């Protein structure tokens, strides 16, 4: 298997630490190459520069595609002078995946304010930047663990804006992209989707809101007519207990917290962020930079390990498809 490209993320966060810990755990199982400044790795790290990406799989130490970010890393204190290096590492990783040198992309957490301050970063986050690099207008964020897959139809917007942003086109695109990705990247031939309502009790027949009647129900009916297996709209408060989860392969939720609260409750450390709709596989650990523990040796690499394993599985499924 070709290596997975890991973009370094925010140097002052836990990204360098969890990338190294993941390699130590997955060495011999999942080949990878880290793109960043090796001076930002934990002190005493045994690393080796990789001239040929193909050599990453057999590297005798942590394989690094070396970049010079300038100033040293100060754990817990982001430095805007690193911003362009962080952005370029993401761009370089995408190029390696698109060229076929790497099989997938796994991104370490970034700090958006540092990127804005240091390089005028013009994107809300990783996902939007990756979509721009790939030339894609519609992408979908999925959060996944062994017990649950969830997809929010709207993401990082104020709750008051959700009813306005939630359109038939948005919901249709989210469901179709998710359906196609479950087939292609997860090997599920006939995905079963469960769709949450927007309002409590899925609107209760219009007594607690009209969005289900006016928007969600007609959209789901049109998609069922195309052959998709969809349950809903369902009351979100009854969708996530074990018996309910057994009835679907992924849950489509209407807004950020409706999707993320259940998965982070079920598996806070092991969740993986996946971007659907890109022409390549991209995963990420489902947490942030954790400045408060950076450099202390307390960082938990569970989510990064899960993200790399999932990226490898998805890349294999896509190649075999």
Furnish the topology, listing elements before pairings.
Blueprint: E1 4-7, H1 15-26, E2 32-36, E3 47-49, E4 62-66, H2 83-99, E5 104-107, H3 112-119, H4 126-134, E6 140-144, E7 149-152, H5 162-165, H6 168-186, E8 192-196, H7 211-225, E9 229-234, H8 242-245, E10 250-253, H9 256-266, E11 272-276, E12 282-285, H10 302-320
Parallel strand pairs: 1-2, 1-5, 2-4, 3-4, 5-12, 7-10, 8-9, 8-10
Antiparallel strand pairs: 6-7, 6-11, 11-12
Question: What attributes does this structure have?
Answer:
17% strand; NAD binding; zinc ion binding; Isopropylmalate Dehydrogenase; 12-stranded mixed β-sheet; 321 residues; alpha/beta; 37% helix
Explain this structure.
The mean pLDDT is 96. This protein has helices spanning 15-26, 83-99, 112-119, 126-134, 162-165, 168-186, 211-225, 242-245, 256-266, 302-320, and strands spanning 4-7, 32-36, 47-49, 62-66, 104-107, 140-144, 149-152, 192-196, 229-234, 250-253, 272-276, 282-285. The protein starts with a strand and ends with a helix. 37% of the residues lie in helices and 17% in strands. The chain is built from 10 helices and 12 strands. The relative contact order is 0.18. It is of the alpha/beta class and 321 residues long. Helix 6 (168-186) packs across helix 7 (211-225). The chain has 2 domains: 1-137 and 278-321, Isopropylmalate Dehydrogenase, CATH 3.40.718.10; 147-266, Isopropylmalate Dehydrogenase, CATH 3.40.718.10. The longest helix has 19 residues, at 168-186. It has a 12-stranded mixed β-sheet with strand order 3-4-2-1-5-12-11-6-7-10-8-9, sandwiched between helices. It holds the Pfam family PdxA. One of its GO terms (molecular function) is NAD binding. Belongs to the PdxA family. It is found in: Cytoplasm. Its main location: cytoplasm.
